[in-house]
User: Which sequence fits this backbone?
DNA sequence: CGGTGTCTTGACTCCTCTCAAGTTCGGTGG
DNA sequence: CCACCGAACTTGAGAGGAGTCAAGACACCG
């Protein structure tokens, strides 16, 4: 059991001490391994009885489209994250999701999740607990959109992404590899792609951060933290709270 | 048990069929009934070991403050909603909350929730499931901030609020009573209070919606829905999914 | 009857968007 | 090997939405 730990298992164990039965159920979620090309849409807004996915490799993003064709990216997913959980919890899918890079993921049918949750309620608690932490990130993102200028938004976003990736062992204080395009940034930050470009240029010229060729480099980490008023508390994690 | 149903109990039963033991635990959460004046801060960002509250009467809002003194309201709570649940789930509170009106609420100590969850895992599942639906609302709010103009934001916000309140039996298609100030709207929508005033005036002059003297009146519901591209799917609710 | 909180309105500024041209670069096929 | 292509990235100019500052109106309350 120990050596087979997936990123997800590790994450869940941080919230709830899981029994053998829980881990069995979780293991069953990982049966249907699949891979998808960059750009493939995994979750379709409005669809019923949608499968969820557990991301094993690569990046994805979840988003909502507006009638005028604009889109707002809500969150990015990295290995160990659930994709489309809410679409199983509720009958109709309220968002879409697509692969940012080529990805590897386990498909979990809606019925499997509901059955699993009914039989392993502590696992259900753990999964939903983790979802609740994702909500904290969405909340921070919301504050970002509501009350920060374009530059602060960008700074905050890159710092948060960096912090999240460090938790999964990708990247460090100097920076991280990042497959996102400026269009992704625009859709996530509620800006136009043109303005994203200008903001990035300005941050680079100020010597704060460089985003080029798929790499984010924190040139002046402290300065960036100050500009963004960044604070990592909402990502805190220790031992399981429920024993 | 039947006649004692709180708004919260009714809400949870929509997601998970609860046992007598679950209902007992839930009942125990309601022991410490308290009331607070309008403006009282219930949840303090950064605090450890924070109590949560179950709102029974009145309105509250949860928000985050920024270092420059601005604030962003993340969500409003109405009777039946949890306040500060995430502050119990994680060790440090990541947001604040205050009473908008005079309110009645049950205080639930962190330890009581964690104990309750450990002993009644299906209740835990239900509570977190409900929290997940709140997340859907936060997501919609985020899209609102990221990709809609001030007018669309306002229209969408008022429609969503109206829809939520109808579910709790407050208000109807013609409008609802609303204790929020224009400052609340500004902090929720990421606008300045001055601009909120102008937007409200314009919507009123267009004959779409009137917000005056604590009352929101939908003068042209259809027109408002069109302007906001409003869609209620994400609030769907039927019978319990987990039996 | 002053005072405080809320709401209005006007004038001016500036941040971000849109439109419109390029440029760079990796890949693909002749 | 080179020409071409599309995707992503740049940059400039002009327009407009939303912010700020400032002043006043209104209403509720002790």
Assistant:
């Amino acid at each position: 059991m120990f050596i087979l730990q997936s990123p997800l298992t590790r994450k869940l164990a941080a919230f709830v001490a899981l029994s053998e039965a829980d881990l069995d159920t979780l293991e069953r979620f990982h049966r249907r391994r699949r891979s998808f090309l960059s750009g493939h849409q995994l979750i379709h807004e409005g669809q019923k009885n949608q499968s969820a996915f557990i991301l094993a490799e690569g990046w994805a993003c979840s988003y909502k489209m507006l009638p005028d064709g604009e889109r707002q990216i809500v969150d990015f997913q990295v290995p160990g994250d659930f994709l489309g959980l809410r679409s199983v919890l509720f009958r109709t899918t309220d968002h879409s999701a697509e692969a940012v890079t080529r990805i590897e993921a386990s498909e979990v049918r809606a019925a499997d999740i509901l059955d699993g949750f009914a039989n392993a309620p502590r696992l259900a608690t753990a999964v939903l607990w983790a979802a609740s932490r994702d909500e904290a990130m969405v909340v921070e993102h919301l504050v970002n959109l509501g009350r920060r200028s374009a530059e602060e938004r960008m700074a905050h976003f890159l710092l948060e992404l960096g912090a999240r990736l460090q938790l999964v062992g990708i990247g460090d204080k100097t920076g991280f590899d990042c497959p996102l395009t400026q269009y992704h940034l625009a859709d996530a930050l509620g800006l136009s792609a043109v303005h994203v470009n200008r903001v990035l240029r300005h941050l680079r010229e100020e010597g704060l951060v460089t985003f080029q060729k798929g790499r984010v480099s924190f040139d002046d980490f402290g300065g960036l933290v100050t500009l963004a008023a960044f604070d990592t508390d909402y990502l805190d994690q220790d031992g399981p709270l429920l024993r």
Summary: Chain A is about 45% helix and 20% strand. Chain A touches chain B through 53 residues (CB under 8 Å). Residues 149-150, 191-192, 194-195, 198 of chain A lie near DNA strand C (CB under 10 Å from a C1'). Chain A has a mean pLDDT of 91.
